[in-house]
Amino acid sequence: MFKILIAEDDRELRQLFEHVLVKHGYAVTGVSNGREALLAMEDNYFDLVISDIMMPEMDGYEFVQSLRQSGHALPILMITARGSFDDMRQGFLSGTDDYMVKPVNVNEMVLRVGALLRRAQMINERRQTIGSTVLECDSLTVSTGSESMVLPQKEFMLLYKMASFPGKIFTRQQLMDEIWGYSSDSDTHTVDVHIGRLRDRFRDCKDFRIVTVRGVGYKVVKA
């Protein structure tokens, strides 16, 4: 499930956006300004941000610019009452990916959110970053700081799958089906063996941990 952060100081409008997006299958967190949004992002992973411009404490321009300067590459949709070309230009220069002017057609908003998420997946599907750790799918390479290593294919794909969705729990059977294939003769104990090897390889990594969810499976969480 994709996670969306909404920064909007109009409480009723924020709740409307939340309701519509949840109805379409998204997990949504709402805050009232850019400063609260940055705090929310310290402890949570989000796939997309929707931000107003005119907000107290930290406006949308400053918020988006702060995200880009700190290296966040997630898609951002600005929604604002300021519809002049100069306002739009400033929004794109600050780092936003798309721009909508109030009053917003919520159905159009949902379409734009979906398009931004698909585009982000296409760009990132061969490469994943979690903290300072980079996973390169084409070379099966994992780089942590100044060190890099080439993993066996199954180990790499196992880590890559979980790192693509931090916090999401994968059952052993899900991982078996996706990494080894539905026709594999191996049993789910194979997953446990590969997880053990990955933990051993990255026991000193400060960017992520592989967590066992007892009786269910595994997940990667940001450290």
Notes on the protein architecture:
The protein is an alpha/beta fold. Helix content is 43%, strand content 24%. It is built from eight helices and twelve strands. The chain has helices at residues 11-23, 34-43, 60-69, 85-94, 106-124, 153-163, 172-180, 189-201, and strands at 3-7, 27-31, 48-51, 76-80, 98-101, 127-130, 133-136, 141-144, 147-150, 170-171, 208-213, 217-222. The strands form three sheets. It has a five-stranded parallel β-sheet, sandwiched between helices. Strands 6-7-8-9 form a four-stranded antiparallel β-sheet, covered by helices on one side. Helix 2 (34-43) runs parallel beside helix 3 and helix 6 (153-163) crosses helix 8 (189-201). The two termini are 21 Å apart.
Keywords:
223 residues; alpha/beta; four-stranded antiparallel beta sheet; 8 helices; elongated
Distance between the termini: 21 Å
Strand order of the largest sheet: 2-1-3-4-5
- The 3D shape can be described as elongated
Rg from alpha-carbon coordinates: 20 Å
Q: What ranges have pLDDT less than 50 throughout 5 or more consecutive residues?
A: none
Mean pLDDT reading: 89
Contiguous helical run count: 8
Roughly what fraction of the amino acids lie in strands?
15-25%
Helix-strand pattern, N to C? EHEHEHEHEHEEEEHEHHEE
Biggest beta sheet summary: 5 strands, parallel
Task: Tell me roughly what share of residues is in helical segments.
Answer: 40-55%
Question: Which structural class best describes the helix and strand composition?
Answer: alpha/beta
Number of strands: 12
